[in-house]
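pasting for the record
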Amino acid sequence: MAGIVDPLVSTTWLAERLGNPDIRVVDATLPLVGQAGHGRDSYVAGHIPGAVFFDINAIADPDTDLPHMLPTPEAFAEAAGALGLAREATIVVYDAHGIYSAPRVWWTLRVMGYPKVFVLDGGLKAWRAEGRPIETTEAAPAPAKVEPAFDARLVTDLAAVTDVLASRAAQVVDARSAARFTAEALEPRASLRSGHMPGALNLPFNLVVNEDGTLKSAADLAAAFAHIDLGRPIVTTCGSGVTASVLALALARLGRFDVAVYDGSWTEWGGRPDTAVVTGA
């Protein structure tokens, strides 16, 4: 793994640079599936000093009923500029759970052309556990001028996923639990069918995250991905594109920064009557 740039930074690394004008800190907290509340509730209760809140559900495509789908590059550039996220800045994203929703914003920023984006390993959970400073005052960043950009290589849609499943041109890896993947458990969104896409592989996202909320080591991740051919193209999917990004982050730690995320994920696939669904292992 020599020469690979890790997509995560430690709490120590960030603490030593907090307040540096070239660093932007982003709180990307999203409630866990089935959990009440709003990510902003966590942010208001306490966040890393200087962090801005990135509302995953608001900085999204308003013209679809699918949750937190990517907005247009133009809309994203406007929202990112309002948060002071200049392209030349080094951006560190975290969430309150450890590693859960932060990778979604890490991936989104990379799709939208940001070259220096990292996830805080262990997130706010680790930051608090170490007794590091917390503030409750909402940040008021100076707006930044952001030109639209878009890297289509990192995003997959319904048509593309259908094609790669049929052609086996890429491996589709589902981050949902094994029980949801095999239809032994119902989907948390009641309108969705249970099961998985034909030919998809399963790696529940919690298997790449340690109990303390940090990402597993490269060696442990390689073991977790042992049933995936890391030399072939990979598309990740999940319930709505959030934990699919956790797998994309884990694969980046293994040097695969080219992994695409299926933005609509199971909310789109499982909610349509014209897509094939497999139950069982």
